[in-house]
């Protein structure tokens, strides 16, 4: 099996596992501790993080299929992932607005901490997929970071730009 295929399978599997296990473990932790929990805020931030992890899973799956089939990403790729990108931004804004408009006296420090922490995780995952690679888990990728002194562009962001410009050229023709 090709090294790139193995890497893409690893990335797809890791994101899928995180999208399933992370919410399960976190909700179990909240449930186990008992007491009053601002479920709506916490779940909204957690659901957004899981939603973005699922996007990563789908991206790495499409990338793997594209490599295996030796074909470019499918025509719907750009529209779907551009939609995901914008929906992430809308959800981030909605959670922030809800958090800012909520009476702080009704929130515990734990509610505020969990919500902000999960929201920060969602923002970082969004950046990691759509803008700049934040995860450097191999010696080669970390070496690239040290040699160049800057973050790499995110693979999904690059593919989104590439498929967007291709779609624009096709529409103009």
Strand tally? 0
Q: Which overall shape is indicated by the principal axes computed on the Cα atoms?
A: elongated
What number is the mean pLDDT?
91
Ranges with pLDDT <50 over ≥5 residues? Answer: none
Q: Summarize the amount of helix as a percent range.
A: over 70%
Q: Specify Rg, calculated over alpha carbons.
A: 19 Å
Largest sheet: none
- Portion of residues in beta strands equals under 5%
**Helix/strand/pairing category:** mainly alpha
Our measurement of the CA-to-CA distance between the termini, rounded to an integer number of angstroms, reads: 39 Å
Domain module count:
1
SSE topology string: HHHHHH
Number of helices: 6
Keywords: Membrane, Transmembrane, Transmembrane helix
Transmembrane segments: 12-31, 37-60, 80-100, 112-130
Overview of the structural elements:
The structure is a single chain. The protein has 173 residues and is an all-alpha fold. It has one domain (3-172). 79% of the residues lie in helices and 0% in strands. The chain contains 6 helices and no strands. The chain has helices at 3-33, 39-69, 77-101, 109-130, 139-148, 155-172. Helix 2 runs antiparallel to helix 3 (77-101) and helix 3 (77-101) runs antiparallel to helix 4. The protein is elongated, with a radius of gyration of 19 Å. The model has no long low-confidence stretch (mean pLDDT 91). The chain crosses the membrane at residues 12-31, 37-60, 80-100, 112-130. Keywords: Membrane, Transmembrane, Transmembrane helix.
């Amino acid at each position: 099996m090709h090294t790139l295929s193995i890497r893409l399978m690893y990335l797809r599997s890791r994101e899928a596992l995180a999208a399933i296990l992370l919410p399960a473990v976190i909700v179990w932790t909240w449930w186990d501790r008992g007491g009053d929990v601002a479920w709506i805020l916490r779940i909204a931030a957690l659901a957004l993080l899981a939603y973005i992890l699922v996007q990563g899973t789908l991206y790495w799956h499409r990338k793997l299929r594209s490599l295996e089939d030796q074909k470019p990403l499918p025509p719907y790729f750009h529209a779907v992932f551009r939609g995901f990108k914008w929906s992430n931004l809308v959800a981030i804004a909605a959670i922030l607005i809800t958090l800012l408009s909520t009476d702080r006296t009704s929130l515990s420090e734990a509610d505020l901490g969990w919500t902000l922490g999960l929201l920060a995780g969602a923002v970082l995952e969004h950046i990691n997929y759509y803008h700049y690679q934040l995860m450097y888990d191999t010696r080669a990728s970390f070496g690239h970071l040290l040699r160049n002194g800057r973050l790499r562009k995110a693979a999904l962001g690059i593919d989104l730009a590439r498929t967007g410009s291709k779609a624009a050229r096709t529409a103009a023709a």
